[in-house]
Structure formats: structure tokens, C-alpha cells
Amino acid sequence: MFKKLHLKLTFTNALILICFLFMFSYSIVGISSMALDRTSENSLRQRSLQLISLSKSLDSFELVVIDDRNSRVDGNILGNVMDIHHVIWNNNKKLSTLNIVDGELINVLFDKALNTFKNKDEQFKIIKANGLSYRMYSQYYELPSGRGGVIQIFQSREVDNYILNQLFVVIMIIGSVSIGILIFISSYLAKKSLEPVRLSYERQKEFIADASHELRTPLTIMRTNLDLLSMKENETIIENKKWFDNIYSETETMAKLVHNLLTLAQVDNNQVNTRSEIVDLSVLTQKTCDKLVLMASEKDISFKSIIADNVMVKGDVNRLEQLIVILIDNAIKYTTTGGEILVSLMTTPEKAYLSVKDNGVGISNEDREKIFERFYRVDKVRSREQGGVGLGLNIAKWIIADHKGTIEIKSKLGKGSEFIVGLNKKNR
Amino acid sequence: MKVLFVEDEKKVTDALQELCKIQNIECDIANDGQEGLIYAQSSIYDVIVLDIMLPFKSGIEILKEIRSEGNNTSVLLLTAKDSLDDIVKGLDAGADDYLVKPFASKELFARLRALGRRLEKEYVEGLITIGNVEFDLINYNIRIDGEPIKVTYKEALLLEMLIKRPEQVFTREQILDRVWGFDSEVNENNIEIYVHNLRKKLKNTNLRIDTVRSVGYTLRVS
């Protein structure tokens, strides 16, 4: 899925860049063309004014102009494409002065001259003759004697076209190379920008798969046990207590799992409303210990608590209680019969430290990094037997982060573990 | 029918064991991958039911291992992993069937019976005929070219397990377990004597008992 998305993103970027290159190239060529036109038009007009001034001073349309830019050309083609040429039509619409001999071009010029005679104005035109393109300036003027004529100044556009074509080619080559590099960069950036999305998607997929797996396990137990009970319809409930107990305990596991999954789903969607109030952590810890001491005594675990008085923190009382329950519940699960659990609450001027210490199975260094991951269980069988669903510590981690607290684990495999939570104190 | 369940969820295996008892199916239970592999290698089962996510060794690893040893016992993967990729991976690893949890026990046992019948399908009314050898599974009479040959009960049991699954490699533990029972005091040398005797009796047939070095024996049809 992400490979396709990456390709799509790169392709779209490339398409945008190519469109941009064409627009840029045409703009540059267009601007250059306009600049060349303006320069050329100015030259043509200047040249025209010079010749008109000469013609007026001589009071004649017959001019002999000796100019290296206007050398007379014999033949059908221009001697130099850079040259500026001229023709002057007298009041009888006959050619009086010219520095070219090109029949087709003169015919075209004559047509344009007729227009100028008619409108008695000036005009710039692009004309074509013999497959060549020219920019032409045509102007009507009158001699002191009152006779009116038309002067036409023109210049080949081939050089301009050649320059513009070359400019376009250069821009396209440089642009294409740049686009190639940009596509490569774009592909890299697309991949890079998709990476967090991909990781988040993978995590979500993994979470759904894990959640589905965890939900299927209690369902399987319930279903197989129910199937079995349906085959023992002539037996009493007492005779089948084991199967009923299995089903009952699995409904509890499922309820816990669903509750935890909903909490985590809310956490992921930032939908959890945590209250911020002054909480007496001493009272809360004592109250929670009192609730859980029975659970420990059922496993014959010695449960002790040393709790400092009046330790106040700012936070959500329900979430903090949930945190203490998770830590003590875990300690009970992973402490064998006859073991010991010590819950202590200590303070420094700034911090409150809640510690839950046991002499249970302990955690290996390798597992220590992973125990906060969702559905990670060091000992899957033991955890399930104890009703664990593998989400408690992940929720605990979130509660601690939400209260801007810290957590530290001290543990030795086979010797026991200690979870120390640090919270900011709120002095009354 | 004898079934091995390799499943780490004790509450499931307890119920399955009880269900097997009701349906007169002999079963063994292994609660982790390592134990499951040992069971699969040392006994003969009609079907092996494997969970995939198991402690110590995954169901797929067990499956690959027993297949690489030439064990072609029918295997059903019974797992909570339900994605298409998982199913394809499981079947490609050599599983014969795949059932996703939670399952209906009726369906599971119907599938087990179907897998068990695959072998029996090849026998017409309890009679296996390969080339010029006929094996009567009901009263253990063996005929070569229509002529009955004399075999002891243990030899017949040994030949039965080999002839039911030609080309499958049986370990010495499996043979001991099937022919003499797991608590018998007979040692592996006895197997060699019985194999030697059977080889002599099958001399003029297209059946051949081959020794697979450091593993066990297999029956090949030429």
C-alpha cells in the first residue's frame, strides 16, 4: 500500500515539476522575445526617423544611403540577417529608394505599404517572404513639398528566433536535469515523509491483530467449554463446576481486556479527559493497599506498606488509583506464594516517590525494555493464568506521562522487582 | 483415531481432552512447542493439531521440523491468527488444514475425522493392496501373490504402520511406542530383528523396508 502511495506521490511531484518547467521555460522565452521585439522595434523606428529626416531635408524620396548596416544587396536573399533594410514608396506608390532586390519580399512590402498609404499611420508587422520572417516598421510621412510617401524599415527575425530557440533548448536541458534530480529528491522526501505514517499504520495494524488475538483466546475457551457442557446435559452443575469456572473467569478476563482496550483507544485518539486536582497520594495509596491486601493474602503473600503522610500531588485521582492498582496487581501476579510485597510512599521537597517492591520472578534486562509494550508478556502462560491481558503497564506508562512523572525499574531475574514512580509534589 | 493437541491454553486443552474422551478419540496434550515436537517425533498420530503461537517453539517451526524428518502425518493448524498471509504461510509450511479460533468443537472434530479418513480412503473395506501384497487390516492376514504368509502379531503391527504410510520415516521411538507400547522394556535392537524378519518375508514383493540412518525406517514401493 505504501509503495503505491510513494510512487503516486513521486509521480504527482514529478508532474507538477514538469508543468512548472514548461511554464518557466515559456515565460523566459516569452519575456526574452518581448524584450527582443521592443529593442528591434526601437531600432527600426530610429532608423526610420533618420531616413525620414534625410528625405525631408532633400525634399525627395530618392535617397542614396551609404551605411555599413544598410549595404545594398543584390539577389533574392539578404546579405546579412543582422542588417536593417529599407524601402521608400513615393506618392505614386512606386519604389523610390531600396537597398534590397527581392521580388517576393517587395510584393509583400507593397501590400503593407498600401495599408499605410490608406491609413496614413505607422505600424509594426511581422511579414514572411521566401520562407523567412521579418519584423517591419511602416510609416507614412510627407515631404516639405506636400508629397506623401511610405517608408518601410525591416529586419530579419531569424537571429531572434535562433536565439530564442537556443534559449528554450538550454532551459529545457538544464530544467530536465534539475527535474531528474528533483524527482530523486522528491522520491526520497516522499519516502521519508511517509515513514512516520507507515510506522503508525503498522503499529495500528499490529495492535488490531494483537487485540483480535487476545479477544479470540477467551472466546475460544468459553466456546470449547460450552461445547463440552452441551454434551454433558445429563450431569449436574456441581459435576461440571470446572467448566463453568473456566467460562466465568474468561468473561472477567474479556471484560478487563475490553475496558483496557477502550482506554487505550481513547488515549490514542486523545479523547481521555483527565481531571487536574489536588490529590492526597498518602490517603489514596493507603486506600488502594487496603483493597488489594486481600488479593495478596489469598496467595499467601506478605503485604506491607510504609506511607508518608500528607503527600499531595496534582492529578486525576481515578487515574492515579488505576496506576497504583496496576503496579500492585502486577507485583501480586509475579510473586510466588509465600513471597513479600512492600509498597512505600516517600518524599523529597519537590517529589513524591511511590515504590512497589516484590521478591517475585523478576524481569530480565532484555524484557525490561519491552514490558511497557502493548500485549507484551514476559511469561504468557503465567500472565494468562493470573488473568493478565498484557496492557496494564502500557496504561501505567501513559498515566505517568500524563502526570509528567517518571518511572524506574530495578529488577533481578529470580530475585524480584521494584517499580518506582516519581511525581511532582504539590505543596498546600 | 489418535490425535496430538499442541496448545498452550490449558483451559482449552482440558476441554478438548474431555471432548475427545466423549467421542472415543485417543489424544495426547502438549502445552508448549518443545513438548509438542517431542510428542510428534516419538509417537504416531493420525492427526496433529498445532497452535501457532506457542512458548519455546512455534507451531510453524514444529510443522517444518516434522515434515523435514519425513513425517507426513496430517496436521491441522488451530490458531487465532486469521489473516490470509498467516493461512497461506501455514498451509505452505505443510499443514493439511487450518481452523481459526474461536471454533465450534463440532467443526474441529469433523475436520479431524476428515483428515483421519484421508488415509483410510485408500483402503477398500480394510484391505490394503500394494503390488502383489495384500494386507487385511481386520484380521491381520498377509498374502503375497494370493498365498498367505506367516507373520507374528508384532510383525503384523510393524508392517501395518509402515504400509499405511509408505515413504514416511518412522523413528525407533515411534515404532517402539506403536508396536510394543510406550512402557515396554523392549529395546531398539528388537526392532532390527523384526525388520530383518519382515524384509525376508517381503523379499519377492515390490515392498522394501529401508533404514534411514540415525532416524528409523521407511517402507518404499518400487
Automatic annotation (TrEMBL), chain A:
It is found in: Membrane. SMART domains: HATPase_c, HisKA. Residues 210-427 form the Histidine kinase domain. One of its GO terms (cellular component) is plasma membrane. It holds the Pfam family HATPase_c. CDD domains: HATPase, HisKA. This is histidine kinase. The lineage of its organism: Bacteria, Bacillati, Bacillota, Clostridia, Eubacteriales. One of its GO terms (biological process) is cellular response to phosphate starvation. GO terms for molecular function: phosphoprotein phosphatase activity; phosphorelay sensor kinase activity. It comes from the Bacteria. PANTHER family: PHOSPHATE REGULON SENSOR PROTEIN PHOR. Its EC number is 2.7.13.3. SUPFAM superfamilies: ATPase domain of HSP90 chaperone/DNA topoisomerase II/histidine kinase, Homodimeric domain of signal transducing histidine kinase. The chain crosses the membrane at residues 12-36, 167-190. It catalyses: ATP + protein L-histidine = ADP + protein N-phospho-L-histidine. InterPro entries: BphY/WalK/GraS-like, HATPase_C_sf, HATPase_dom, His_kinase_dom, HisK_dim/P_dom, HisK_dim/P_sf, Sig_transdc_His_kin-like_C. Keywords: Kinase, Membrane, Phosphoprotein, Transferase, Transmembrane, Transmembrane helix, Two-component regulatory system.
From TrEMBL, chain B:
Signal peptide: none annotated. Residues 125-221 bind DNA. Pfam families: Response_reg, Trans_reg_C. One of its GO terms (molecular function) is phosphorelay response regulator activity. The modification 4-aspartylphosphate is found at residue 51. Residues 2-116 form the Response regulatory domain. Residues 125-221 form the OmpR/PhoB-type domain. GO terms for biological process: regulation of DNA-templated transcription. The keyword Metal-binding does not apply. One of its GO terms (cellular component) is cytosol. Keywords: DNA-binding, Phosphoprotein, Transcription, Transcription regulation, Two-component regulatory system. May play the central regulatory role in sporulation. It may be an element of the effector pathway responsible for the activation of sporulation genes in response to nutritional stress. Spo0A may act in concert with spo0H (a sigma factor) to control the expression of some genes that are critical to the sporulation process. This is Stage 0 sporulation protein A homolog. It comes from Alkalibaculum sporogenes.
